[in-house]
Amino acid sequence: MGKPNVILICVDEWRGDCLSADGHPYVETPHLDELARGGVRFSKGYSATPTCVPARVALFTGQSQEKHGRVGYNEGVPFDVAHPVTIQGAFRKAGYHTQAIGKMHVYPERSRIGFDDVILHDGFLHYSRKNFKQNFAFFDDYVPWLRRQPGSTPEGEYFDNGVNCNSVVARPWDKAEHLHPSHWIGTQAIDWMYRRDPSKPFFLYLSWHRPHPPYDPPQWAYDQYLDIDPYKPVEGDWEQDWDEFRKDGDYQAAFGELPDRTVHRARAGYYGLMAQIDLQINRIRESLADFGLAEDTIIAFTSDHGEMMGDHHMFRKALPYEGSARVPFIIADAPSAKDSARGAVMDDVVELRDIMPTLLDLAGVDIPDSVDGKSLAPHVRGEAAAGPVRDWLHGEHIYFSQNIHWLTDGRIKYVWGSAKGVEQLFDLTTDPDECRNLAHDEASAPLRQLWRARMVATLDGREEGFVQDGELVAGRPVVSILAHTQERIAAGK
User: Fold this and answer.
1) Would you state the pLDDT for residue 493?
2) In this predicted model, which residue has the larger pLDDT, 123 or 407?
3) 31, 68, 83, 105: which one is catalytic?
4) Scanning 170, 329, 361, 425, which has its CA 20 to 30 A from the CA of 221?
5) CA geometry: angle at 477 spanning 476 and 478, to 5°?
6) Dist. CA 93–CA 79, nearest whole Å
């Protein structure tokens, strides 16, 4: 074959354990499981900066947060100026037809950042709604389309049922299923296959806003999970470390107790959105076969971050814990590629930055020098690896009024909060739910010292001054954009 087509699927807020192939007790993802059987599932996939904006920077640039400079969530940053080299730009330079459909979450909203074209639905986007005074045509293609559909109104949109985009309140979708944003993404993808340039291979970025809230799946998908076992919170011996940020009873809080019945319904909505997307992915894959494209198309599936979903009475993302930071990570080589791995499960620690070099490598496209992610192509091709992808991963995010740093090798996780020096240490092998903090266990002192030293080595030289005289220093001021990226932005404006 010639150069393969490439589809990168990125969903929003999908936990890494929420695949039936990963052994989840309730979630059923038969079509993603099928994709995994046709390729490699990386069981230790992570998002190093687990919120929408910095995670997508890593995905698009193939860079660590130290290199791309985004360690927190910031709106209004001109993407092309801050991050000029992207996966889509590399594919376009190599002669690919590049297209994005769905969530981009960049600024300006209509920036193509290396794509030939974009068809947008980013979800609620508070920043854009306010900036454009709800004139959706400037930043969204789904709502104008919805308003043109029979039975709709000039005011119709996805928020007219009142369900917030960061709330655990759940209810079924109130319109016909074909009008749901997740269904619309599938329809747009299939329609685009008619309009693509048939003389070129393509790179298609498909990005669903769901299963991010609002938890509003179709009725059938919501009902599918209402009768699962009642919710029981996962609790540890360390939640008090963050008690000053607790907001009990707040349905949009990152941390706080809510009625078990409320979280039970939220899970039904969350899992139901996954069921709907799983079917849309199957719909698209079947259409690839209809168009004669399936045999020569590489498909990758991941998420920008996870969702705590009540674990430790926490919700949403940005946190270092498995529910927030671990993501699904599947890469399936083109079926026509010989000797590639099929149905393999790899336990190496991998990260979103690794997707760019992997897909470029598999497609035979040069990897830009700016990339510091690792190509996983040898794993996908079934070749013997020379060693682990990395010894451990450093993640971080500005949250809870500080920078929360973490390290993991997939077996141990060390967490350090920069405000007061909170330390947490978890054995993920014996304690996958991160319930027991070993950082203050005398028997674990040598292990704590090992990982603390690794954190010191990782943060030594950081502009914030987290390390002084070989020790971690709490209470330092933090920034959400590192200086070298701030300088690039300032120079480009």
Assistant:
1) 66
2) 407
3) 105
4) 329
5) 110
6) 18
Percentage above 90 pLDDT, the chain:
93
Task: Verify whether residue 264 is a known catalytic residue.
Answer: no
State pLDDT tens for residues 61-83. 999 999 999 999 999 999 999 99
pLDDT, tens only, 337-348 = 999 999 999 999
Residue count of the chain: 493
Decide which of 1 and 36 is more confident: 36
Please report how many Cα atoms fall inside a 13 Å half-sphere around the Cα of residue 268, on the Cβ side.
25
Q: Of 52, 97, 183, 305, which residue is the catalytic one?
A: 52
Q: 399 has which bridge partners?
A: 402
- What are the strands, taking DSSP E only, across 247-351? 297-303, 329-332, 344-351
Residue with tokens 């809230």: 213
Dist CA 367 CA 5 (whole Å)? 17
- Between CA 146 and CA 299 the distance in angstroms is 29
Active site residue 52: yes
CA 313, chain centre distance (Å): 21
- Residue 29, phi then psi, degrees to nearest 5: -130, 70
CB count, 10 Å around CB of 236?
18
> What is the per-residue pLDDT across 165-205, written as a single tens digit (0 to 9) for each?
999 999 999 999 999 999 999 999 999 999 999 999 999 99
Sign of CA dihedral 185, 307, 70, 366: negative
CA distance 363 to 92: 12
∠ at Cα 403 (398, 407), nearest 5°?
110
